[in-house]
Amino acid sequence: MPGSPLQRAAAAAAGALAVAQLPPLAARPLWARALLCALAAYLPSYLDGAECRGAPLRSGAYSLWFRALARRLLRRAFDIRDAVLEDAAALSRCKQCILAVHPHGVLSLDHLLTVAGYDAGLEAALPQARRCALSASVLFRLPLLREHLLLTGCVDASRKSADRCLEKGLSLSVVPGGEREQLLATRGPVERLVLRRRQGFVKLALRHGVPIVPAYCFGEAQLYDQSRWCMGLRSWVQRTFGVALVMPYGHRGLPGVPHRTPVCTVVGAPLDMPRIEGTPTQAQVDEHHARYVAEVERIFAQHKAAAGYPDVQLQLL
C-alpha cells in the first residue's frame, strides 16, 4: 500500500469502516465495529517490516522521554552504579562500532540500560542516537512493545538488519548470549556466558571493518535465582521457537522481585577489526573471536573485585 504510514492507516481504517456498514456487520455493536476499524488501521504498520530497515521510526523525543523515565524508575528498583569506561577517549573517537553486552541475564537489564542511554558517561562517548539495538524477532510481534522498540531505535536481530544499520553509518548493540544464556542465568558463584560458538557478531565486524566494544555488566546475573523446573521442556521451546521461558525469583523467594545487589557495567576499549572483503574464512573468524573472548575474560578478572564480586568465577559455554 503506497503512501506514508499515516495515510496507509487511514486508508485501511476507511476500508474497514465501509465493510462494517455491510450486513451482517452493521448489526454488530458499535464497539465491535470500532475495534475492527482500529485493528485495520494498525495492521499496515504492524506488517510493514520496519524492524528490518535500519530504525526508520526512531524518535529523538521519545528516546529522551524514555531515558528520563528509566533514570527515574530503575534507580529505585536496582542498585545501579556508574559505568566504568576503560578508554572513554577511544570510545568517543569511534564513528561506528558493535557494542557487545554480557551477560544476558534473566532480565537483560544491561541491554535495557544501553538502549535507554541510562549512563551519562557512556551516552557521552557512544550516543544512543547513533546506535541500533539488535533485538529478538519475537519481540516485534507483540503490539505496543513493537512500537516502543521501533521508537527507541531497536531492530530485528537478523544479519540483513544488522548489515543495513552498519551500511547507514550506525553503530550496533548486541547481547551475543541470546535466549540460551537468558535461560541458563541464575544467581551463584559461577556466571555462565554462551560465547564459545557465538561468532556472528565477529563475522559482522570483519565484513564491515568496525571495532567491537566489549561490555560486562557485573551484577546482572546475580539479580535473580532461577527455577530448574521443566528445564528440558523449556530448553526445547528455546531451541525451537527462540523464546526463553524464564522462572526467576529473588528477594525472600518472591517471583520477579530482584535481589538488592550492585549493578555496574564495565566498558572496554574498542577492539579493532580488519575489513575483510567478501566472506571471512573460518580461520580468520576464529582468530578474531579468540581475541575478543580473551578481552572479555580480562575485563571480568580485572574488575570483578571492584564491582563487588571478588569470588565469582566466569564459565564460557
TrEMBL record:
Pathway: Lipid metabolism; Glycerolipid metabolism; triacylglycerol biosynthesis. It is found in: Endoplasmic reticulum membrane. It is a multi-pass membrane protein. Its main location: endoplasmic reticulum. It is an enzyme of class 2 (transferase). Keywords: Acyltransferase, Endoplasmic reticulum, Glycerol metabolism, Lipid biosynthesis, Lipid metabolism, Membrane, Transferase, Transmembrane, Transmembrane helix. The keyword Lipid biosynthesis applies. It holds the Pfam family DAGAT. The keyword Endoplasmic reticulum applies. It comes from the Eukaryota. InterPro entries: DAGAT. Its EC number is 2.3.1.-. Belongs to the diacylglycerol acyltransferase family. This is Acyltransferase. It comes from Prorocentrum cordatum. The lineage of its organism: Eukaryota, Sar, Alveolata, Dinophyceae, Prorocentrales.
